[in-house]
Automatic annotation (TrEMBL):
One Pfam family, short name: DUF4317
Domain of life: Bacteria
Originating species: Clostridium tanneri
Protein name: DUF4317 family protein
Listed InterPro entries: DUF4317
Length: 425
């Protein structure tokens, strides 16, 4: 699921949306101290008052908001639903089918539903919640039980679930093709869950309109913080080409941090590196190959060659591009780095073997000043394409200087700097 897929779905979390009818909203209040369930509430979305619907919509929308690999992570389940389901997903599920048809196909290929039901993995629970056609309550309660057994929060929490449909268009539909609207629009069932903390408000004096009197607020007047979910997820993963029931979309409240206990023990997923971790690993590999010093024009050429693949994928609207060990070796050789034989050992030491980096995670943004040049006294930001205009030089007196090629005068506090001969510095 890429940035555009998430953005398209997120736009439908509004009262006026007709492309995403929400069926049920189920909420469970869970105590921190003993994992006791205080209350449960099932609502049919269209029967709720407008203000309450708006609050829930904003809450679930938040679970799908944030940079990919920084706050939003597409994770693989540790145990997939079976080889047949993997083959269907790998081939891509045509959007001319409904999610229910997909589930039936996968069920037909599974070697006995009971075999998977006995495991009660999160994937199985969510999978059956969509395929059963029943209310979400029974299946959501099983997820709540797993959360209670692996409690990692400092406050009481409210766990919200929605079961909804998303009518998604097939972007590859030909204008000339004689297709009905049913061929163009795909009905996809999905589940979103949010984990929300309970806030106890400070003691204040309030005015009670019903009794027309001033009184202190009650300690029982707790608030459900719907604006900042602690954790959350969506199942299944939805892309422009297929529905992937072997993946789940996980939301983290803290950028670049994953709630390991929730991901591994509640979602039953493996941990993937964050964007910052991938960037650090890539730089560690470069450092192993080229050493701790590099020329700016060499660095710029490495970034540009890798970024070309990213730009090409964006032009063709392809899946998120990656780069592996062989491709990185080729890029380094093309930029004049000779000792590339250590790339393989660097990958094994840092990544545990060959690894595919997401290109957007390892190259700086070419559309912004994403390169930082800094030491104890200097902090400058430039675009990657300006790297070759920077030099670290030593003047005649032996002092280190940062030499920046300029196309126009620079200003400091409104004053244009006076140009000087380099020898006079």
């Amino acid at each position: 699921m890429n940035k555009k897929d998430l953005a398209d779905l997120r736009k439908e979390f509004k009262l006026s949306s007709y492309m995403m009818p929400i069926k049920e909203i189920y909420s469970v209040y869970l105590k921190k101290d003993n994992g006791e369930i205080i209350t449960k509430e099932l609502n049919y979305f269209e029967m709720m008052d407008i203000e309450k619907r708006e609050l829930y919509l904003e809450n679930f929308k938040k679970v799908l908001t944030g940079p990919i690999d920084t706050k939003i992570f597409e994770l693989d389940f540790k145990m997939n639903l079976g080889q047949d389901s993997e083959e269907v997903v790998a081939a891509g599920i045509d959007l001319d089918q409904s999610t229910r048809d997909v589930v039936r196909e996968l069920n037909a290929g599974m070697a006995g539903e009971q075999r998977y039901g006995e495991l009660e993995g999160t994937q199985t629970i969510l999978y059956n919640a969509l395929s059963s056609g029943e209310s979400i309550v029974e299946y959501a309660d099983k997820i709540v039980e797993k959360i209670a057994r692996n409690y990692t929060y400092e406050t009481d929490i409210v766990i919200n679930f929605i079961k909804a449909e998303y009518f998604k268009g097939n972007k590859k539909r030909s204008k000339e093709a004689e297709e009905s609207i049913d061929d163009y629009v795909q009905a996809i069932e999905f589940i979103v869950c949010s984990i929300n903390k309970i806030d106890v408000p400070k003691k204040v004096l309030k005015f009670d309109y019903s009794e027309m009197t001033f009184k202190p607020n009650s300690a029982l007047d707790v608030e459900v913080n719907l604006k900042s979910p602690l954790d959350g997820f969506m199942f299944p993963s939805i892309s422009s080409e297929y529905i992937d029931v072997n993946k789940i979309i996980y939301y983290s409240s803290k950028a670049k941090q994953i709630n390991v206990g929730f991901v591994e023990n509640v979602l039953d997923c493996g941990i993937k590196p964050t964007a910052i971790e991938e960037k650090e690993s890539f730089h560690a590999i470069l450092n192993t190959v080229v050493g701790d010093k590099i020329k700016t024009d060499t660095m710029q050429e490495i970034y540009e060659r890798i970024n070309e693949k990213l730009e090409l994928a964006e032009e063709e609207d392809d899946e998120e591009p990656t780069i592996d060990m062989k491709e990185i070796t080729k890029v380094l050789e093309e930029t004049g780095i000779e000792e590339t034989e250590v790339v393989k050992s660097a990958f094994e030491e840092i990544c545990g073997g060959d690894y595919e980096f997401k290109i957007k995670n390892i190259v700086p943004d070419f559309n912004s000043r994403s390169i930082k040049i800094e030491n104890e006294t200097t902090n400058i930001t430039i675009t990657p394409r300006e790297l070759s205009s920077i030099r670290q030089v030593i003047d005649k007196s032996g002092k280190k200087c940062l030499l920046i090629e300029l196309t126009e005068d620079v200003q400091i506090n409104g004053f244009r700097l006076e140009s000087e001969e380099f020898e006079s510095i």
